[in-house]
């Protein structure tokens, strides 16, 4: 049976890496059809809206979305569309694997860990956010719920069990933020007791960051709150060669969205040198979500082989290839 997915081509380099990823999915015979929808600057230019209702309706209907990067201004301007999509569809679990690839510009070898980040509560919710008219003061409330804490921790332990992982590390700041992350830690301890087959421990976030840099091999699955997870998952991407190798899944009960977690990189848009790996790896996560584990594994192996060979990779990976040559090399291995 053919699966239709919503495809958002994104801003900046988004259309280039999305075209590459769809070529890869077609080459492997994934059996997908594509419902192309707009979001971000392209949507605003065509429809006058950053996130059109047609796009939301498409995701609700298809329940699966593949999204290229969308522009989010720093400081002022409109709020993150990624946050808006996660909130609208209650995509509470953000899953960010960090895996070493031979031939990449990485400081470490044999990294294989997953960060599971709560995606809908905490600091990014912006509860009660305001700025004084004279710009002298700004406030934003951090809110978490027992339900939100429990379902993300349970998701992480279920993921560990399903993927054959041995350990879950709970990352928090309960020594200082005693209420909001204190609740997260208490709930995590309660949930961990139900999974006696999975080792668990907890670390204060600053110590966790230090340990990730010093001895990343001690980590397997990390589960944490929204803000800490955003920072830690990028740190983990740095361990394996950067955001160009960093995919992300956003999963809820009724929908799931898969993406490259890097930005839209307008400075290199149209130059044909964008690295498509992060979005391709996000597509592999999507295939796993659709229970197509064989093709997901083949995608990852093909990417690993091309990166290790090195001759057709993009400049950020140390090669002299283009987005097209990189994609050609991957598709050849999948044909």
TrEMBL record:
InterPro entries xref list: IsoCit/isopropylmalate_DH_CS, IsoPropMal-DH-like_dom
Entry keyword annotation includes ATP-binding: no
Domain Isopropylmalate dehydrogenase-like: 4-330
GO molecular function: isocitrate dehydrogenase (NAD+) activity; magnesium ion binding; NAD binding
Entry EC no(s): 1.1.1.41
Keywords attached to this entry: Oxidoreductase
Oxidoreductase among keywords: yes
The protein's name: Isocitrate dehydrogenase
Protein species of origin: Wenzhouxiangella sediminis
């Amino acid at each position: 049976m053919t699966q239709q997915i919503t495809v958002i081509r994104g801003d900046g380099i988004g259309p280039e890496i999305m075209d590459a990823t769809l070529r890869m999915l077609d080459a492997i015979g994934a059996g997908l059809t594509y419902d192309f929808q707009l979001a971000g600057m392209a949507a605003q230019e065509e429809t006058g809206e950053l996130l059109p209702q047609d796009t939301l309706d498409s995701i609700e209907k298809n329940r699966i979305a593949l999204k290229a990067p969308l522009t989010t201004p720093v400081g002022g301007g409109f709020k993150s569309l990624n946050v808006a999509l996660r909130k609208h569809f209650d995509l509470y679990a953000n899953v960010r694997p960090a895996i070493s690839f031979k031939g990449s510009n990485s400081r470490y070898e044999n990294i294989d860990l997953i960060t599971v980040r709560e995606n809908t509560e905490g600091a990014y919710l912006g509860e009660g956010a305001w700025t004084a008219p004279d710009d002298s003061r700004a406030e934003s409330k951090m809110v978490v719920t027992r339900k939100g804490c429990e379902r993300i921790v349970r998701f992480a332990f279920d993921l560990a069990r399903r993927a054959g992982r041995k350990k879950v590390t709970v990352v928090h700041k309960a020594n200082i933020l005693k209420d909001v992350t204190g609740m997260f830690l208490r709930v995590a301890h309660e949930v961990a007791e139900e999974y006696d087959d999975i080792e668990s421990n907890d670390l204060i976030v600053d110590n966790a960051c230090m340990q990730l840099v010093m001895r990343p091999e001690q980590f397997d699955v990390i589960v944490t709150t929204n803000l800490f997870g955003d920072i830690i998952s990028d740190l983990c991407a740095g361990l394996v060669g950067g955001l160009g190798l960093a995919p992300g899944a956003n999963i809820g009960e009724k929908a799931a969205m898969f993406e490259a977690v890097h930005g839209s990189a307008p400075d290199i848009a149209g130059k044909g040198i964008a690295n498509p790996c992060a979005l391709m790896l996000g597509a592999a996560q999507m295939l796993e979500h659709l229970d197509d584990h064989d093709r997901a594994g083949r995608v990852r192996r093909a990417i690993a082989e091309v990166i290790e060979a090195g001759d057709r990779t993009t400049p950020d990976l140390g090669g002299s290839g283009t987005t097209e040559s990189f994609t050609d090399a991957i598709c050849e291995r999948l044909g």
